[in-house]
Each structure stands twice: as structure tokens, then as C-alpha cells.
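Forwarding these from the shared drive since the link keeps breaking.
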Amino acid sequence: MTARSTLPDWSSLAERDRAGALEQCRDRLSRIGRKLNAVAAEMDPGACGHGPLAGLPYVAKDMIATGVTAPNWGCSEPLQSAGNAASIIESLSGAGACLIGAAEMTELAYEPSGINGARGNVLNPWNFDFIPGGSSSGSAALVASGCCYAALGSDTGGSVRIPAHCCGVTALKPTWGRIAVEGAMPLAPSLDTIGVLARSAADIEQIWGALFGRDAAQAAGSPSAVVLEDAFRESDAEIAGLCRNAIGVLSKLGMRIEGRTGFPDEADQHCLIVMQAEAARTHSARMDDIRVNAVLRKRLRKGLSIDDKAYAESLAAREKLRADFCSHYLRDAVVALLPVMPVRTPRFAETDPSSPEFKARTLYALSRFTRFVNYLGLPALAVPAGFDSRGMPVGLQMVGRPDSEAVLLGIGKMLQAETNWHGCVPAAIASDITA
């Protein structure tokens, strides 16, 4: 890999360096974060508390109640009062973390590319012509550009993993229900998950440990993995090659790797039914709200065509399909490996319905490899796996068994101890980082 300048992660900072990290991030948030249109609000953290995350500067996606500002939910104006802070915000504050801002997002968290017709698009810090990924676009862009060391996002069909791929950061989508969603805007409650983004798996591990303690679940002996070969065959050659290269690093480190054919298409289809049905029912009052973009309102109405019987049948199939995935695909392995996305990060014009270059197939492909994970309620980790020929980052996805977040993070740390794709400074804002 060509040498690139790098940014440190939180876990690598000496205590003396952490003292100045908060003000450095607040300065970057005002300069770089605003330039990227990734900041919905800046906040004065005041005196941060003590604890395992003391001084950690982080931001929250602007659908998670902070108790400070009224969240916009990605819309042109707030659709909710400030209210009380979400339980996850309270937990992080109790651990000493410092909330410094709210991150922009796509409208109602229901758009996978980062396009936002109401508030403008968040810019990708690697190249402003390319999408940042959605719906946690601002969260990923702010972590990637050194404006914070961690960010909260949401993931209903891939919304922390897709922007992690596009912006070159690490993201954990936990087991469904593991992090309380109280105080966050609902989209599809049977799928909604609060996720964590950071530069490295080591940083997310610190956050996870502060929230839940050190998980007892660990891989027995040498970790093993299966490669979902059909996903690689479906992917662009460059995506497949980069992800296989990252898997090769894991193999050299002693991880047992074997291939599996097939793909959980049935789970993917059920996810679309549940997501569309629940989004329409959750936001039915907003289908005629002119404050919500017309394209989004049309997307919401699509869910009304799904009747209660079909919706109930999709929900009822989940437990069996989850068991089938663990027994058929994972078997005795601890994780399944596949790209985060089958396509390279597209340009804005390819995913903007108002553009003559819009390709519906490309927009659909963004979440092709992530949706089934939400339906099955499984945890997944997205990690950087290198850069394509245009200099854009590419992500590898690791999918585990229920409550195996510690295992996923351990494998992510193992990979990142041997590589530094996660530490590279994004090209489009490199000069701003040193300013």
C-alpha cells in the first residue's frame, strides 16, 4: 500500500495527549465538520465526568435525543422537542465520554447513500464527488476526518456499515436489542439498532467494555471463519480482490478460513418486507407532511402495499432463518466474511433520483449485503480493507452469532494490528487536518 499520512485512534493516545484531544476535535468540528456539511449542532460538553471513557469526544446521529438540542431527524426542521437524553447518551456520559455535537443524517434514516434533499448532502472526506453512505453519513464522515473519536449511528438495513465502507472507518452493528433504542427515532423497530463508529476496533472495544463490561463470550482456540463465496462472485472484481486480500492477512495470522456457497436471500427478502411495512406504519403521519421530501414520502407509501398477513409471516420466519444461518453457514466457525457492499462507492449522481445518471440498481446494491444481518438480528463489524483504484476506501464485513460482539472486535483488532487502512487521513481534507 502506498504510504499515507495517518490519524491516531483513541486507544493509542497517551494520557497526556488525550487532555488536548477534546479541544482539537471541537476545533475540527467547527472547521472541517461544517465544511463537510456533517454537523447538525455543536455542543459544549462542559466538565466531562470520570470513568473508563473519560474525555472521549464523540458525536451522536441527529435522531438520538441528546437532551440539549431538538433533533431534526434529517428533515428541514425539528420534528421532536429536545426532551430528555437517550439512555445510550446517559450511559456514555456516565462513563466520562464528552458529547460535542450532533451529526447530520439522511431524512428519517431511510436512504442508504447519503442523499438529503432537505438539509443538503454530507460530503465524503475522501472525495467530495462520491457518496458518504447513509443513513449515518455525518457520523462516519466526522470520525473519518478526525472531528471526533467515536460516533453513534443507527442501523436498520446497514446504516452504520455502509457509511463505514464509504468513509473508511470501523463500525459495529450490535445484536438487535443489545443497546437500548429508548430516546432514538424509530424507523422499523423490529430491525432498528444503535451502532458505534470509530477509527478502530480497539476504540469500539473500549466503548463496548464501558457499556457492558468485558464480555465472557470468546472464541475457543484459534478463531475460524467462513467466506460467503456467492457474495464475492456477485461483487465487483476490485471489491472482491481487496476483501480477499484482507482475509489473507487474517489467514496468515492463523485464522482458519473456508468457503461456503449460497447466500441468505430469503432473509434479505423478508428484511425488505419488514422494513417497508414498519417504516410506513411508524411514519404514516408524515406521508403528507410537506416538511418531508417528496421522494421520501413516496418511498414510505410503498410500505402501505404490504398487508398485515405478509408482514406477520415475515416476522414469524425470523427465528428459524437465524438458526438456519448459524447452522448452515457458520457451522463451527465464529464469523462469516463478505464485503460490506458489492459495488465501489458510487458518485452522488448515480444515487440521486433527480439526476439523469441515477441508477436504481446501484442504490439497491448499497444494502444488498447488509440487510439480511438486520433481519436475523445478528451482530456485524465493518472494517476498512484497503483502497480501490480511485483512492476510495473499501470495507470488509464480519457477521457473528448473537451476542458475539467481543469476538468480532477481537478479530477486527487482530487485522488492524497488522494493517493501517483504518488510520489513513482522507485525501479531500488532508490539508485541513494539519491547519
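-- next protein --
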Amino acid sequence: MDNVPDLPISRTRALLVAGVLLAVLLLGGRLLSRGGSAAPPPPPILPPTTSTTSSRVVVHVVGAVRRAGLYRLSQGDRVADAVARAGGATRKADLSLLNLAALVSDGEQVVVPRRGAVVGGAAGASAGAGGVATGPVHLNSATVEQLDTLPGVGPVTAQKIVDYRQKHGAFTSVDELDAVPGIGPARLDELRDLVAP
């Protein structure tokens, strides 16, 4: 029994060791909590749909297609993509009057003409033979060549109209042509009955 240490000393040591451990744990916990709050949390990763919704456009496809209606497309899609989304062209469609390679813009109406119909797309085709468009040229779907057939609009101004449409979106009114460089009030009055949005 002489080899057994005193009980109060052992208890004191045990309490001392426990106190030191508790202090280390508390100090470590405070350091960890401070370190966690000092560093900002990583930024949330947004789903891909959030970044692509701004690059979506809505077009109205009508005419000789299987399912006419409103369709969502990606920015940079072509008229051919819009026609495909509408179920494709019907047998009565005349796709030679439509520029399938043209870029679509938000709010645009894509008219797929029927054979024998006179539409804005036909204006470019008939202008090659007679030199004057036979129907209104649609500003939102006309090609540079079709716009070039308009009186007082050369290839440079026609390209400016297409560039304006691609940069600012679909024309909602013929009056917006006034904002295109090279088209003033007099030219706008001359074109007013020959074009449509």
C-alpha cells in the first residue's frame, strides 16, 4: 500500500489535465470558428439554364409549316432551325423564297410561303426579273438582297438594316428605320408603303 499515490494529488492532477484539455478545446474551437467566418463561402454555382435564358429568342413561325406557333430558339439560330422546330415545311411550301440561313431575332415572325403566294420573301425573287418588289418587304426576315431591291436602298444600307435588326432585335414599327444610318425622314416616307415589320 505504500506504493499507491495519494488520492487528493491524483485527483488534482486529473482536474488540472482536464482543465488544460478543456482550455485547448475551447481555444481551438474559437480559432476554427473565426477562421471559418473570416473566409467567405465559395460563390454559388448557377445552373446552366440561368446563363442561357438571356440568350434565348422567341419567334413566331407561320405559313406552310406543320405546326405554326411560337417557338423558343437559341441566340444565333437560323430560319432553318425555326422551320424545323415548327415540324418542317409542308409539301405546299416554297422554300426557295425564304432565306433559311438568315439569323432569327427575338420577336421575329418567320413566314414560310406557299407556292404561288406573293409575300415579302417573294419580293426578292420577283425583283430580279422586274426590278421592283411586288409585295411588302418584311424588315424582320428580309435578306440583304431583298432589302437592296427597295428604292434608294443599296447593298450598304441593306446591310445596315440587317445589322441594326441583329443588334437591337426585331423591328416593331416601320418608323424604327429612321434609326438606321443612311435612312432619313425623306427615305422613310418613300419606303413606308413598301415595307412591313
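The chain has a mean pLDDT of 76. The beta strands are 56-63, 69-74, 109-112, 137-138, 195-196.

- D.
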